[in-house]
Fold these 2 entries.
Entry 1:
Amino acid sequence: QVQLMESGGGLVQPGGSLRLSCAASGIEFSINLMGWYRQAPGQQREWVASITNGGNSGYSDSVKGRFTISRDNAKKTWYLQMNGLKPEDTGVYYCKAVVGKDYWGQGTQVTVSS
């Protein structure tokens, strides 16, 4: 059974940093695409960043230059380093893995507030 487990969320002041992790289990093959999405209260889920098996990454304009996605293929784990956090970054962050089909984690709350 495939499971994705996020960790690293929390409460941080504006300008602060957090590092999210997503660990995948139950996946026998390499993960083609790993990604991060977020959903703010009352908003639709939106794409934040993704990284391919070969290491190519992409970012939404709202986080480019502040967030960095990385992955450890051997551990089937990927990360989202978030720097310069803003109140508008608040939301539930979900990780996604694409292995023939999409798999989602349960989400981790990130709150940016003073």
Entry 2:
Amino acid sequence: QVQLVESGGGLVQAGDSLRLSCAASGGTFSSFAMGWFRQAPGKEREFVGAINWSGSYTYYANSVKGRVTISRDNGKNTAYLQMDRLKPEDTAIYYCAADLIYSTEQGLAAMPEHYQHWGQGTQVTVSS
């Protein structure tokens, strides 16, 4: 059973940076594409970005492109979400997710239903 645990969330000010981590266990981490999603109160879960299993390809939502970097360390079974120049509208619960089925080398899944395993989420709050 794959387990994902996010960490690194917190309260920051607008313009700050934050790095979230997603630690995986119970599976072959290097086989999974990893995605990051977020969900603000009263809104649907939103795709942030994803990375392929080798880390050679990433894909980002237009809403965060240029401010977000996703990376992974397969030796540590961990994926990362680096967020810079944070805005109040980035406030949400951030989730990491793993996909073994739908993503390809350069065709990463962007729909929540295409990810099979999810973490519990970590809260990010950006004050203005």
